[in-house]
Amino acid sequence: MTSRNNLAYAYxxxxxxxxxxxxxxxxxxxxxxxxxxxxxATKTVRGNLATVRQAVIxxxxxxx
Length: 64
Fold this sequence. Notes:
3 helices
């Protein structure tokens, strides 16, 4: 789960937000299943996913 989160962050940093979102979603599903929704690691991944989704929204709004 940590490795998937870290790889998603690497894609995010490289600007490949589509791949980052996919990996964050997978990591979040795993964290929720294994650790539970309130675990700190789950919350971190959820926050990372929210951040990259906001970045995608910002890109689309900025290009209009």
